[in-house]
Structures are given as structure tokens and as C-alpha cells.
Amino acid sequence: MKGATTRYWWALFYYPNPVLIDYVYYWGGFLAWGLRAAAWWKKRQQRAEKSDPKSSVQPAFKLMAIVIMGIGLSAVTFGSPWQKAAEEFMSEYAFSEWLELYLPYWPFEPYIPLFVILLGIFLATRIPGERPMR
Fold this sequence. Notes:
Elements: H1 3-13, H2 20-51, H3 59-77, H4 80-91, H5 94-102, H6 112-124
């Protein structure tokens, strides 16, 4: 989800009275991002199978990953309940004043659910003994 799509997130969950086109562009952008995340998942699974065909992700990791991805998907769908708390948390500290000057998309509320979903994908495709990529 790039800047244009996140603008529609703000239109849906921050400003009152969103219009139909806001929903269309937001969900279209999220769908495009979701397809890219699914491709990343598939690539990581293939790499895991190549490194050791017998190793698989432990069921506990898979269950935890599914729960985390579910939380991320619900946060993508229902941004209004958590948006205000996230904004207050991210704007409360002194470091955020500095970040607001230099980061064009601060605060990062629209991106929080995406990071949560990516964390779930990472856990679901975890390769035992894998070293971080350099």
C-alpha cells in the first residue's frame, strides 16, 4: 500500500462521511498489496522446501501465524476502533515531533496492520535454523 492507498485509509477511518470511491480505491490497493504478500509467502515456502524438504514449520508457529494474520486482517477491515489509540500512542512521545518533520507518512497508522500481517507470514514460513538475509 503506497501513499495514495493510505490516503483512502484516512478517508475511511479518520475523516467522517467516506464516499464509495474511497472504499473502492482502499480495497483495490489492499488487494494488490495482499497479492504481493501472498507471492512473498509462496517464495519463502519454496525456499524452505528447497533448503530441507523434511523440515516444516511447527504447528505452534502456524497457529500463531494464522492468529496474527487474522488480527492484521481485522485491523485492516476495522480501523476506526484502534486508530485513535494508535495515533495517541505514536504522537505522545517527544521523538515523534522530530519524525513528523522528516517522514511524509508519519504517523504510520495505515501501515500497522500490514506489518502485523507480514509478521504472520514470516512466522508461517519460518525456516528452522535460517539465518537473516544480508
